[in-house]
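Field log, afternoon session.

UNIT: design team B
ACTIVITY: writing a sequence onto a fixed backbone
BACKBONE:
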C-alpha cells in the first residue's frame, strides 16, 4: 500500500542494477538456542525443506532484485554450503547471492556490534557496486513482500530513508520499535520498544487512518518497524558516518530530524520468528489447512537447495493437519499438527502431536556399526510418544520414549534435550536412549 508523500516527485524507472540488497543475519541467534547451537540463525531449517534465509532471498528474487549479500558471523559454515548449493545465476545477468562474514581489516578487528555496524564494516564491498538504492532486510522473519512496492513508495515520497512498518495490537508494542507518522507518511517520532503506558498511548495510530489503511474493528493499533529499510546511496553514506551501531536504536531515530524518513505500511502476513515459541507456532501454522503463510502460493515461490529425493512413503498411518517433506518414511504412526523435514523416519505405533521434526542430512548407512555401539537409528523409534517438541536434524530417538514439556519448567537444560518457552527441543545430532521419559 502506498501512502503519499513527503514531497512530490515523479517515479523513475527502476532497473535491477539500481538496487543492492543486504540481508542481516549476523546476530548470535541466542533467542533461537539450541537451534543455533551449531548453525547461524539464517541457516535454521524452516518448513521441512527450507532455511530461514530462503525467505528474504526469495522476496528479493521474486521482486526482480538478484544482487544480494547476506551478512553473518556465527557458525556460518552450513549457511555458506546452503547458499552455494542453492543460488546460482547465469554468467551474463550479473546476479549473485554471497555471504559477507565478519572479518578483520586494517580499520577494524572487532565483530559486528549491531545491525548498522555490520553494514558499516562491509561498505568497502557494497560500494563496489553502482547502486542507487540499498534494501536492508532481516534474516529471521516470515513474510512475502514485493520489494518493488516499497521502493516505488520510497521514490514517490522523495524519501532519504524508508522504513517498512506494520500495524500491531497493544500486546506487541513493547517488543518493537514504534513509529508515528504524519498525513504524508513521513515519520515524525520513533520509540524503541516502549514500555511506559503513557508513551504507548501517545504513539497510537489515529483512528481516522483506519479506513484509509483498511483496518477492521476499533481496537487501537500501532505502527511497528519490520526491520526492513530502503536507503538512497547518499543517505546510506551519511548514516554510516560516526560510530552508531544499530539501525533501530540509533540510525533511524537520528535521521528523523535531519532527513525525510518515510513509512511504507505493509499489511500482509508478517511474523518475527526470532524466538523458539514464535518459530514453533509459525512452523506448525504452515501445516494447518489454511496457513497464514502459504507455501503453495504459486506466484511468489520460496526457493531453496534442490534435492533429488524420492516421494515420501506412508504405510498404515493416520495423519491430520500435517506437512510431509520429500524422502520421508512413516510406518504405522499417528501424526497430528506435525511438520516432517526431509528424510524423516517415524516408526510403527509412534504418536506425534504438535511436533516440528527437521529430518536428516542423509540416509543412514552402516547399520552394523550403529548396532555395535547400541545407539538408536536416526529418526523416531517404535512406540514413542512426542508432543509440543522440536526435533532437530539427525536426532536419534529410541523406542518407547515419551517426550513432553507437560509439568516441567518453561526453560530447562536436561541431558540431551532442552526446554525453551515450554517446548521440548532435541538438538541436532542428539541421541535419546530407548525408554527415556522427559
Amino acid at each position: 500500500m502506498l501512502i503519499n508523500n513527503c514531497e512530490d516527485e515523479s517515479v523513475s524507472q527502476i532497473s535491477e542494477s539500481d538496487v543492492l540488497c543486504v540481508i542481516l543475519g549476523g546476530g548470535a541467534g541466542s533467542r533461537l538456542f539450541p537451534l543455533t547451537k551449531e548453525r547461524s540463525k539464517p541457516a535454521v531449517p524452516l518448513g521441512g525443506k527450507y532455511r530461514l534465509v530462503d525467505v528474504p532471498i526469495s522476496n528479493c528474487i521474486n521482486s526482480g532484485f538478484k544482487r544480494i549479500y547476506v551478512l553473518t558471523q556465527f557458525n556460518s559454515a552450513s549457511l555458506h554450503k546452503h547458499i552455494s548449493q542453492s543460488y546460482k545465476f547465469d554468467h551474463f545477468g550479473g546476479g549473485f547471492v554471497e555471504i559477507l562474514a565478519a572479518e578483520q581489516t586494517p580499520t577494524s578487528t572487532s565483530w559486528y556490534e549491531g545491525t548498522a555496524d555490520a553494514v558499516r564494516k562491509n561498505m568497502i564491498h557494497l560500494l563496489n557496486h553502482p547502486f542507487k538504492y540499498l534494501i536492508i532486510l532481516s534474516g529471521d522473519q516470515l513474510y512475502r513482500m514485493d520489494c518493488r512496492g516499497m521502493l516505488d513508495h520510497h521514490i514517490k515520497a522523495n524519501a532519504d530513508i524508508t522504513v517498512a512498518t506494520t500495524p500491531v495490537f497493544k500486546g506487541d508494542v513493547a517488543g518493537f520499535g514504534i513509529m508515528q507518522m504524519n498525513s504524508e507518511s513521513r515519520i515524525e517520532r520513533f520509540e524503541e520498544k516502549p514500555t511506559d503506558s503513557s508513551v504507548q498511548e501517545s504513539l497510537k495510530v489515529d483512528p481516522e487512518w483506519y479506513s484509509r489503511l483498511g483496518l477492521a474493528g476499533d481496537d487501537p493499533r500501532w505502527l511497528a518497524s519490520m526491520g526492513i529499510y530502503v536507503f538512497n546511496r547518499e543517505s546510506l553514506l551519511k548514516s554510516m558516518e560516526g560510530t552508531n551501531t544499530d539501525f533501530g536504536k540509533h540510525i533511524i531515530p537520528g535521521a528523523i530530524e535531519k532527513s525525510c524518513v518515510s513509512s511504507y505500511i505493509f499489511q500482509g502476513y508478517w511474523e518475527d520468528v526470532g524466538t523458539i515459541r514464535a518459530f514453533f507456532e509459525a512452523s506448525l501454522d504452515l501445516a494447518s489447512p489454511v496457513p497464514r503463510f502459504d507455501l503453495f502460493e504459486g506466484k511468489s515461490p520460496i526457493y531453496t537447495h534442490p534435492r533429488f529425493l524420492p516421494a515420501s512413503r506412508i504405510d498404515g498411518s493416520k495423519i491430520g493437519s500435517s506437512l510431509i517433506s520429500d524422502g520421508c518414511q512413516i510406518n504405522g504412526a499417528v501424526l497430528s499438527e506435525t511438520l516432517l523435514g526431509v528424510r524423516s523416519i517415524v516408526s510403527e505405533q509412534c504418536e506425534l502431536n504438535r511436533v516440528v521434526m527437521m529430518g536428516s542430512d542423509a540416509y543412514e548407512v552402516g547399520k552394523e556399526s550403529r548396532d555395535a555401539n547400541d545407539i538408536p537409528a536416526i529418526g523416531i523409534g517404535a512406540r514413542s510418544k512426542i508432543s509440543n517438541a522440536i526435533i532437530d536434524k539427525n536426532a536419534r530417538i529410541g523406542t518407547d520414549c515419551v517426550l513432553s514439556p507437560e509439568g516441567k519448567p518453561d526453560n530447562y537444560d536436561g541431558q540431551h534435550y532442552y526446554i525453551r518457552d515450554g517446548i521440548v527441543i532435541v538438538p541436532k545430532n542428539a541421541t535419546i536412549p530407548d525408554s527415556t521419559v522427559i
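LOG NOTE: Residues 162 and 262 are 5 Å apart (CA to CA).
NEXT ACTIVITY: expression trials, pending approval
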